[in-house]
């Protein structure tokens, strides 16, 4: 668990730096996290990054990314803020905790997209997971962007964990439990589903569906 904490803090500090420059990454996922050793990590591939001001002005019918990492407001309306990156960070937290690629109990597609956006579906949590970790991860997953912590707040929380005896005890205890749990419910997918691709916004999907209904009626 110690290495996981250090890894998370490294990623959070990099994200804080990106946001401090007035930028939004927009394609944050584990494939864009580089490690030079087990104790350090860097956020890479800022090819889709955009300034905060420009993101506020843009309107889109779709986004580019990997479905489970994209925030609900981006999947639904193509809206991006720094909080959208925080949602992606929350998904990365899940992967670091369980040592698995993020998964759901269904295929990646429009149905999963609808469930994430409108029913609050998130990756499953295994019993015995550290509550302090789960609490922070769920805050990053909040459906409303305004309720998610900033990258600065996340860095402060993770730094505080390093010296809080109660937190350290909880993390150590949970780590031992998770090592003995067979996470068979975690589904595996082909590697190509974890590549960034164009995703049509759910608002556009609804509009297309309504237009098709009108055409059928007419």
TrEMBL record:
Q: What's a GO biological-process term for it?
A: signal transduction
**Which InterPro entries does its entry note?**
Kinase-like_dom_sf, Prot_kinase_dom, Ser-Thr/Tyr_kinase_cat_dom, Ser_Thr_protein_kinase
Gene Ontology molecular functions: ATP binding; protein kinase activity
Q: Does the keyword Kinase apply?
A: yes
One Pfam short name: PK_Tyr_Ser-Thr
What domain of life does the UniProt record list for this protein's source?
Answer: Eukaryota
What cellular component terms from Gene Ontology apply here?
Answer: cytoplasm
Q: Give the record's keywords alphabetically.
A: Kinase, Transferase
Q: Which residues form the Protein kinase domain?
A: 1-162
Protein's recorded name: Kinase-like domain-containing protein
- The protein's organism comes out as Gigaspora rosea
């Amino acid at each position: 668990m110690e290495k996981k904490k250090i890894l998370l803090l490294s990623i959070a500090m990099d994200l804080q730096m990106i946001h401090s420059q007035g930028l939004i990454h927009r394609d944050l996922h584990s494939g864009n996290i580089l490690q030079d050793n087990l104790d350090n990590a860097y956020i890479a591939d800022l090819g889709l990054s955009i300034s905060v001001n420009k993101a506020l002005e843009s309107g889109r019918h779709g986004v580019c990314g990997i479905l489970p990492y994209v925030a609900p407001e981006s999947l639904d309306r193509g809206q991006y803020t720094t909080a959208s990156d925080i949602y992606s960070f929350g998904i990365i937290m899940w992967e670091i905790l369980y040592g698995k690629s993020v998964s759901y109990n269904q295929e990646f597609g429009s149905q999963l997209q609808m469930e994430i956006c409108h029913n609050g579906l998130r990756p499953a949590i295994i019993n015995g997971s550290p509550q302090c970790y789960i609490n922070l991860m769920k805050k990053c997953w909040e459906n409303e962007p305004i309720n998610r912590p900033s990258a600065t707040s996340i860095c402060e929380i993770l730094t505080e964990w390093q010296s809080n005896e109660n937190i350290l005890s909880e993390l150590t205890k949970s780590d031992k439990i998770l090592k003995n749990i067979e996470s068979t419910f975690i589904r595996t997918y082909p590697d190509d589903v974890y590549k960034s691709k164009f995703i049509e916004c759910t608002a556009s999907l609804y509009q297309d569906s309504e237009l098709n209904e009108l055409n059928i009626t007419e």
